[in-house]
Design brief:
By secondary structure, the chain is of the alpha+beta class. The protein is built from 15 helices and 20 strands. α3 packs antiparallel against α14 and α5 packs across α6.
Length: 470
């Protein structure tokens, strides 16, 4: 196509375009200064149109949702808090005895090796320096060729699942709600093997799922009774309670949202008696529309949207656990044995746990050093969560004598009068309306105007080049 024909086609487009100002550029009767002026005005209009359109796009991507307050509390079901309880006596003496007999350990080696394995099973960021190693236990580790990568598997093999103890239900770790039960799961945590109940995430963090990739089996006893995954209540239910019991010796208790996992840095405390908690839960929920938005739009993640390397589900505490894991790997060159190691990182030898980790205890637990924040984990909030308020708590003396075990009793007497909801206020439709309004305001562009441009530079140009139309 010759230069004259190209110019003729361009003037034809400018003269017939519905976009404001284009007709003046293509008008040969106007002085060149007038056309330059109109060109400058069009460029300025296009710039401001693009700038405001990008602001609308940024708002759609990052500021399209808000958290509002709801007050119609008469219709709400509010989930009770979850408890995760870690027994301080982890190893089964029967399983340990069978293991040591099979390996041919002597009596004087057994006790020291048991003390070592028990302290290793109970170790976490707050007490790595208390691992009980001796010359004999170290010799046993070398003789049996137990490497750091074997620690977790050996602890698991030597631990009994207390939710599946044979015999009477009174012998099991269980969660009782009147004459009904709430699901209780043996889970792998940053405090080793613990038990979690009234928790939506527990099944995905169970020892069998993380170590064997198998869903935990439901004990045959629970097939005959009503079993809740999570217990909730409302104003018409009145007081709702549950008792998480079945522990024989000292325990460490963690309370958290049923949509969350325990935070190893925030225990309720170590106890040899049962605890009673009177609680209030304020929930944050999401509208149906928000599930169709991007993570960047709402600034939160659902549990099925995990971007974590070591866990298949997402929660803020799991994200912080993985952040803690990465910090440990950077500072000490290895990670503790109690993490599911899906990416093949080096597992710490117990001597490294005792020497390196206590130096960075504040960093690993609080993500700060010498009172100054030293790590930013960039962990998003859970899209569905609850804020747990402990209004009262008390130690229940004599519970072990009365019930034969200890644990935690949770009571919800009062129900929240507000809750929070994430909802979309700037949808994709709103974005297109905003773009259309901006383009129409600055340059008079509409959907048909865009189609007109496509038509001119496709079909019209084709016929113009081949001379069938002019």
């Amino acid at each position: 196509m010759s230069l004259n024909k190209a110019r003729s086609f361009l003037y034809d487009f400018l003269g017939q375009s519905g976009i404001h100002g284009f007709a003046y550029i293509g008008n040969s009767f106007l002085h060149v200064i007038e056309r330059i002026l109109w060109l400058a005005l069009i460029v300025a209009a296009l710039y401001f149109c693009a700038e405001l359109s990008l602001e609308s796009w940024n708002r759609y991507l990052h500021h399209s949702t808000v958290v509002s307050i709801e007050r119609d509390h008469y219709y709400w079901n509010t989930s009770l808090p979850a408890l995760t309880i870690c027994p301080m006596t982890r190893l089964s003496e029967e399983k340990f005895e069978a293991y040591t007999m099979k390996k041919g350990l002597k009596d004087d080696e057994k006790q020291e090796f048991f003390n070592f394995m028990e302290s290793l099973a109970n170790s976490t960021y707050i007490n790595f320096d208390q691992i009980k190693n001796t010359t004999k236990s170290d010799a046993v580790l070398k003789r049996l060729k137990i490497n750091p990568s074997d620690y977790l598997k050996l602890i698991y093999d030597l631990t009994e699942d207390l939710t599946r103890k044979e015999g009477n239900v009174e012998h099991k770790v269980r969660n009782v709600n009147n004459r009904e039960f709430i699901k209780t799961t043996q889970v792998l945590t940053e405090y080793g093997i613990c038990y979690s109940s009234n928790n939506y995430l527990a099944i995905n963090l169970s020892t069998s799922m993380l170590l064997q990739n198998k869903a935990p089996l439901v004990d045959s006893f629970y097939r005959k009774v009503k079993l809740h995954e999570v217990r909730y209540g409302n104003l018409f239910d009145g007081e709702v309670t549950y008792s998480f019991i079945g522990f024989k010796d000292a325990i460490t208790i963690f309370m958290h949202s049923p949509y969350e996992t325990m935070n190893v840095a925030r225990p309720i405390g170590y106890t040899k008696d049962a605890y009673e908690f009177e609680t209030l839960s304020i929930e944050i929920i999401t509208s149906k529309e928000i599930q169709e938005t991007f993570v960047s739009q709402r600034g939160c993640r659902f549990d099925w949207e995990s971007d974590l390397k070591h866990f298949s589900v997402y929660s803020k505490n799991l994200c912080m656990s993985e952040c803690r894991l990465e910090l440990a790997y950077k500072r000490c060159g290895c990670i503790p044995h109690f993490y599911p190691n899906k990416v093949g990182k080096t597992i710490c030898h117990y001597q490294k746990l005792m020497t390196c980790f206590p130096r960075y205890q504040e960093l690993f637990l609080e993500f700060q050093e010498e009172g100054v924040k030293a790590a930013n984990c960039d962990c998003l909030q859970n899209c569905i969560d609850s804020n747990i308020i402990v209004e009262k708590f008390q130690v229940l003396k004599g519970t072990k004598q009365l019930l034969g075990s200890i644990g935690g009793l949770v009571i919800m007497k009062k129900y929240p009068q507000i809750r929070f909801q994430r909802e979309v206020i700037f949808t994709l439709t709103d974005f297109f309306v905003s773009i259309g309004g901006t383009a129409g305001f600055f340059i008079g562009l509409s959907v048909l105007g865009v189609i007109e441009i496509i038509y001119f530079f496709s079909l019209r140009l084709f016929w113009f080049i081949f001379g069938n139309r002019n």
